[in-house]
Design a protein that fits this description.
Blueprint lengths: L5 H10 L20 E2 L8 E2 L21 H24 L20
Parallel strand pairs: 1-2
């Protein structure tokens, strides 16, 4: 998902609807070819990272006109549930004793 698209706008409609200007919502897509795209959300062989203002006049990266507060609620609840599960897994993750894996003395003078 991308900036000001259906996903992000739905979340805002759920969390802070007073900050969303749906009267200004317009669909604005990326410049897409057969192999190259400015889109960071689709699977193209080559992503051309261009200046944002060269391919969008609205600042939108997707279609916010399909956004709803109900979609935002579903997305938000799924994200929170997933994060709670992640934290639970991280809290239960075993921390094993550290082992030195070097076969020779560590070279202290390496310049990265």
């Amino acid at each position: 998902m991308a900036h000001a698209d259906e996903f992000e706008t739905s979340l805002y409609l759920h969390l802070a609807p007073e900050r969303v200007r749906m009267d200004l919502a317009v669909k604005d897509d990326d410049r897409m070819g057969k192999f190259v795209s400015s889109d960071s959300t689709r699977n193209y062989p080559v992503r051309f990272n261009d200046y944002w203002g060269r391919w969008t006049k609205s600042g939108v990266h997707g279609d916010p006109t399909k956004a709803t507060a109900e979609k935002g609620r579903v997305i938000f609840e799924a994200a929170v549930t997933g994060l709670v599960e992640l934290v639970g897994e991280l809290r239960a993750w075993p921390i094993a004793a550290r082992q030195d894996m070097h076969r020779q003395p560590v070279q202290a003078d390496i310049r990265w």
